[in-house]
Amino acid sequence: MVRKLTPSQxxxxxxxxERDQKRAxxxxxxxxxxxxxxxxxxxNDYNREVRTYNSKARAHNRxxxxxxxxxxxxVARLNARPASATFTTVRxxxxxxxxxxxxxxxxxxxxxxxxAAQRFVDLASDETANSVYLVNALDGDGARDEDxxxxxxxxxxxxTELAAFGQDLASRWTGALYALSPHNPxxxxxxxxxxxxxxxxILDGSASDVDVKREEPGCEMTDRGAPTRxxxxxxxLRRHGVTNDGITRLVDExxxxxxxxxxxxNDGTHGHAGRFTITELxxxxxxxxxxxxxxxxxxxxxxxx
Length: 305
Fold this sequence. Notes:
By secondary structure, the chain is mainly alpha-helical. Helices cover 73% and strands 0% of the residues. It has one domain (81-299). Helix 3 (115-138) packs antiparallel against helix 11 (278-299) and helix 6 packs antiparallel against helix 7. It is elongated.
């Protein structure tokens, strides 16, 4: 039997239904606003990340282009002069480094590479530019307007980079810098003797023969049965996840280039008359200092994420 409602009961039922409907609509609208706000925030976050990525990509591309222009400018200055009879070993090594960098950079331009691989290519571009500038400076075509004072030339540096390798290595580098003086006829030789020890100690101390052989049993060996320098560099790059043979060759050529500088001065075959100017010594220091920084990046194992 259908229950009869009084007028007041009917009004109450209608009002309750209206309240329930309004509550349902309010709940729906609230959830809709929450969902829409979440979508908007996610979209804003995505757009922000895209803008950040694009900004970094543009900055990186500008940096790469500027570095490429610097290399081209230094090479053009070098080629604009008649071939010099001095520093022929360093000049030849630098030409090889430029060619190797250009080839690797060109080959990788059409490929997707990891951030670690790109970082080492970018670092190598700076190394290449510094090497060509050094040859120009040794030919008397350096940037004299950027000369440091003698105190600045001999000022300490690389403390952070060398701290991990012990005080002895840091002391060697300090001694190398102390030798730099335009009044010292053996400044370059003394500097390079100590600096060579620093470079070799960093590489050998971070890639021991035992470790390299264990990780890469089929690696390239010297006549004495020890892993070659390139094998050690390959071992260190692999710790960063970099396995590209071109990058390994590029890093090896960079180390070979700076070592050729050391051999030139230590063997007394540079053919340079008289003392070196501050411009020349500054270029030598900058080249070696940059190489130590590069080596530090190479031998420092990446932090596990």
